[in-house]
Amino acid sequence: MGRVAGKVAFITGAARGQGRSHALRLAEEGADIIAVDLCENIDTIGYALATPEDLEETAALVKKTGRRVVTAKADVRDVKQLRTVLDSAVAELGRLDIVVAQAGIAGMKGEPQIQAWCDVIDTNLIGTINAIQVALPHLDAGASIIATGSTAALMDVAKVDQPGKDLGGMAYVHSKRALSNYVYDLATHLAPRGIRANVVHPTNCNTPMLQSEPMYRSFRPDLEQPTRADAEPAFGVQQAMRIPYIEPEDISNAIVYLASDEARYVTGLQHRVDGGGYLKWYDNHI
């Protein structure tokens, strides 16, 4: 206990799923939490996003740990709104030490496709950059920045069989690759200041994003209306280990490590929590 005691963590996409799990684990280890989420749907995204009630539940769970929490409904695509929310929260809690840029959406099968591309890029890439950059003025030596990537960013999908078929899905891949490059370069230039930046790459994770009709169709394109029971056996194609997915807590454990002083010299890392998925795509690199 207490691995991040006395620290303050800013988490986007905190209302449910991975974001809620990260907020709770960091609070359990002693951090106060700034939790933000859009808390409304996006038309091109084929599954329901988090609600204000979800964000309230995250806050209640954090409070049960005895830590302070500040919540706000905020859109990572709107940098001015995000900056206002964060500046106010930091003024209330007194400092900022940890940034977890978690907010993200999956636009697979989204329509209209051009808008789906834009919504995913604006949220996953630009929204991640916004979250990090509004936080930078508040960070001092010892701070930790962590962005959520995806094993989709690491897969060899250079050959596109049908260009333009699923722009929302390709935007997801591109956004995660681009944010990985952004964080890598940022880590290089923040290192002399003692500020660390890393990316965590989950494989399939058991959240509403994975357990959704568009994702089921992505894994079972042979079926018109696949169910979870239809899709779940196919989830295993992503991992070398014999699992269909990981749980949010599996990623949160990596987040806690990277946020803590245990990782004080760890920066620029592309940290995979992927059940060996990367091993299926690439030969050994030393």
Description of the molecule:
This is Mycofactocin-coupled SDR family oxidoreductase. Belongs to the short-chain dehydrogenases/reductases (SDR) family. GO terms for molecular function: oxidoreductase activity, acting on the CH-OH group of donors, NAD or NADP as acceptor. Keywords: NAD, Oxidoreductase. InterPro entries: NAD(P)-bd_dom_sf (IPR036291), SDR_fam (IPR002347), SDR_subfam_1 (IPR023985). The chain is an alpha/beta fold and 286 residues long. It has helices spanning 17-28, 52-64, 79-93, 113-135, 167-190, 213-219, 228-235, 248-259; strands spanning 8-12, 32-37, 69-73, 98-101, 144-148, 196-202, 270-273. A 7-stranded parallel beta sheet has the order 3-2-1-4-5-6-7, sandwiched between helices. The longest helix is centred in the middle third of the chain and has 24 residues, at 167-190. The two termini are 34 Å apart. The model has no long low-confidence stretch (mean pLDDT 95).
- Secondary-structure-based class equals alpha/beta
Radius of gyration: 18 Å
The helix content is 25-40%
Compute the separation of the termini in Å.
Answer: 34 Å
Which runs of at least 5 residues are low in confidence (pLDDT < 50)? none
How many helical elements?
8
Overall average pLDDT: 95
> What coarse outline follows from CA principal-axis ratios?
globular
Share of β-strand residues: 5-15%
Summarize the helix and strand pattern as letters.
Answer: EHEHEHEHEHEHHHE
What is the β-strand count? Answer: 7
Biggest β-sheet: count, sense, barrel?
Answer: 7 strands, parallel
Spatially, the strands of the biggest sheet line up as 3-2-1-4-5-6-7
Family: Belongs to the short-chain dehydrogenases/reductases (SDR) family.
InterPro entries: NAD(P)-bd_dom_sf, SDR_fam, SDR_subfam_1
Protein name: Mycofactocin-coupled SDR family oxidoreductase
Keywords: NAD, Oxidoreductase
